[in-house]
Design brief:
16 helices; single chain; 3 domains
């Protein structure tokens, strides 16, 4: 026994058999009976059975737990695969389960951990995308940023679903970019309009939204529907304001130009308001100069217009008489006779009668336009009349030249007179054709207008008819004298005098009366005489030699009231 114990001790092994052997040895020494020994052994067997049973129960529970863990692991794996949208078979997981439970758990665990890690990463991606989407939506709605992170639906964390959210995020980012670009465009437009209108840009945009201040970053600017709507309304309001201001400024500029032209304002004074008249014909979009439509500028123009209006009223008489003088010059240049004194008296009466200056000047401007049109219509005929009269002057000179008995003497300048006589003969030969053309044009003019063409108050056709008669009488007289000469008869002194005269508008050869029309209610005046009865030239009141052709004396003898259908003369105010 001692040897066995020693051996067991040495080996350090305690077994059930050694213990039972030691127990029996003790019983032998004590003298235990067999019955007591059996009871103890039964008790030991029962205790051992309980221990085994307990261990078996524990092993069963442990196996159940492992099976449950394995089942949970498989379910979680399946759920992860489903949530992540992966294929049923995942890399790292055997297609068929084999080995004991722990081996199966050991085989699933790495894949499970990998999928859980992938799930966490995917959830973060979803959360980030959701956060950005909600933030942009909040910016568009104008509700502000969301403080809390949005909840992520973990049942579907697939790449497909993530891609859908990313596409949605991209669309929202694009919309945000477009909205931001539109906001910046509105802000830029408001800035340009405020600069032209002379308004405070910062106060204007901050009234729409505080974030539109230039001090804030671009990405911090509000892009909400409300901000865009208010920006659009602000732009429309500023554009309308710009349109109305430009219209008002152009009206003021037109009034300034009219008043300047009316009062002959010098260029230096006009230059003080170049900034007002610069945009007189510009469109709304063309006005871009800073402060061009500022309220102060418009007020300044209004004050100047009011000042010039008051000055115009005090200078109305001077301005009106200036217009009348211009009208008289037009009529004089067109050889139209008017009663200038009566016209000036009428102007004074209108001014004293408190007529509106604008109306009076507008009427006078209209009279000037009509007079210019009238003068233009007479231009061609008047040019031919001047040519005819000039030819008649040469004819008169040629007659005087023929009467000069010393014309062929070799005196100083005789060769010049000879050359002039040659040219004069050419002109005189063209007079009949010129008169015929002038008569045709004058008759066409009168038929077209239904009035008589007067030249300084005398009907032109009457002058031409008189000239033709005088020329015809002269030719008859010349023929008679030639016949008398042929039969040896000598003309008397009276006949020589008649022969020496010239049938031109500048010479009076007959006492035949020609009825003259009435002009403006006054008796018509005749053209100034430049020759007397003997063919000599007259001197005008300035002491100068008057070479203009005239009408016969008897044009003045008859009142113009006796003849209807006279030429219409534009009336003066």
């Amino acid at each position: 026994m001692a040897a066995v114990e020693a051996e067991n001790y040495l080996h350090g092994q305690i077994t059930c058999g050694s213990l039972l052997q030691q127990l029996q040895q003790i019983w032998d020494e004590v003298g235990e009976g067999d019955e007591e020994r059996d009871q103890i052994l039964l008790q030991i067997d029962q205790e051992c059975l309980d221990v085994y049973k307990k261990k078996v129960d524990q092993a069963v529970k442990s196996r159940a737990q492992l099976l449950h863990s394995l089942a949970n692991a498989r379910v979680e794996l399946t759920n992860l695969l489903s949530a992540l949208g992966e294929e049923t078979t995942y890399i790292g997981i055997p297609e068929k389960t084999s080995g004991n439970i722990k081996e199966q758990l050991a085989a699933i665990h790495p894949a499970l951990e990998k999928l859980l890690k992938q799930k966490d990463e995917r959830r973060k991606e979803f959360a980030d995308v959701h956060s950005q989407i909600q933030k942009i939506c909040a910016e568009i709605d104008g509700s502000g940023d969301q403080a809390e992170s949005p909840a992520v639906e973990e049942s579907d964390l697939s790449v497909k679903k993530l891609n859908e959210f990313q596409v949605q995020l991209q669309d929202l980012q694009k919309e945000k970019s477009e909205r931001l670009h539109k906001v910046l465009e509105f802000v830029s437009t408001i800035h340009d309009l405020c600069v032209v209108l002379g308004m405070d840009f910062l106060s204007t945009v901050t009234e729409v939204h505080p974030s539109l201040n230039d001090a804030t970053g671009v990405q911090s600017k509000s892009i909400s529907n409300d901000t865009l709507s208010r920006l659009a309304k602000t732009v429309l309001a500023l554009k309308e304001d710009k349109k109305q201001r430009l219209k008002k400024l152009q009206e003021l500029a037109s009034q300034l130009v009219d008043l300047w032209n009316l009062m002959d304002t010098n260029q230096e004074e006009r230059g003080l308001f170049d900034h007002v008249t610069y945009n007189i014909s510009a469109s709304v979009d063309e006005v871009t100069i800073p402060g061009a439509l500022a309220v102060d500028l418009i007020d300044q123009a209004e004050v100047e217009v009011e000042r010039l209006d008051q000055l115009k009223a005090s200078r109305m008489k001077e301005i009106a008489f200036k217009r009348q003088a211009e009208l008289e010059d037009i009529f004089s240049g067109a050889h139209i006779e008017i009663d200038a004194e009566a016209a000036r008296d009428k102007i004074l009466a209108l001014i004293e009668g408190n007529i509106e200056p604008v109306e009076l000047l507008a009427e006078m401007d209209n009279q000037i336009v009509i007079a210019k049109e009238e003068a233009l219509s007479r231009k061609d005929i008047l040019e031919k009349v001047e040519k005819w009269m000039s030819s008649c002057e040469e004819e008169s000179w040629l007659e005087d030249y023929y009467r000069d008995e010393n014309r062929y003497n070799s005196s100083r300048g005789s060769h010049l007179n000879l050359k002039r006589a040659e040219k004069a003969r050419i002109l005189v030969n063209k007079i009949p054709a010129l008169v015929d053309s002038l008569v045709a044009k004058t008759r066409a003019w009168e038929q077209d207008r239904g009035i008589t063409f007067n030249y300084d108050g005398v009907p032109l056709l009457a002058m031409l008819d008189e000239y033709v008669l005088l020329r015809h009488d002269r030719e008859e007289e010349k023929k008679r004298l030639r016949d008398q000469k042929k039969f040896g008869k000598q003309p008397n002194t009276e006949q020589e005098t008649v022969l020496g005269s010239t049938p031109t508008p500048a010479r009076q050869l007959t006492t035949k009366k020609v009825v003259a029309p009435r002009v403006n209610g006054a008796t018509g005046r005749r053209l100034s005489l430049n020759t007397n009865q003997n063919g000599s030239q007259s001197v005008n009141r300035d002491g100068k030699r008057d070479t203009r052709p005239i009408a016969p004396v008897n044009y003045v003898a008859i009142s113009k009231e006796d003849v209807p259908g006279t030429e219409h003369i534009p009336s003066t105010p």
